[in-house]
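This section describes the prediction task in plain terms. A model, or a person checking by hand, is given the sequence of a single protein chain and must write out its three-dimensional structure as a string of tokens. No templates, partner chains or ligands are provided. The sample shown here is typical of the held-out split.
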Amino acid sequence: MTSRSFARHTRRLLCAAVVVAGSSACWSVEDPNANVQVGGQVIVYGRITDDAGAGLPNARITVRHHTSLCAGRINEREVLSTGSDGRYRTTFTATTAVGCLSVVAEPVGSAGLRTDSIMNVRPTFRPAAPLDSVAVNLTLRGGIQ
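The expected answer:
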């Protein structure tokens, strides 16, 4: 059975012959795997800037998918870099549709700038287009970490 047809069959019918009464009986039984959420994709994009608003090229972006609380276990992660104007974009794939995303931006070769991040981003993961999109813009500021 494919995952799509499996998802449509959330209830199964259990039938048994009742020998004593000479008839049959059926009961509805919940499928224990019926609530398994299939993963999907989401577009994550944004711009990383410094205090002055200039785009930071080659900043390291880490997108993480957490299965429950954003402080919880990490399911998937993707690492990418910003372009020359500080922009980035990725189509992030998750194996489950529950949980949240966190995005971390780290400066590369920009002395004195601190890492910045955002947590508890809760997009809608979809298996096919149209995909949900989430803009995450971060500013890396100078100072002591």
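For orientation: Confidence is low (pLDDT under 50) at residues 1-35.
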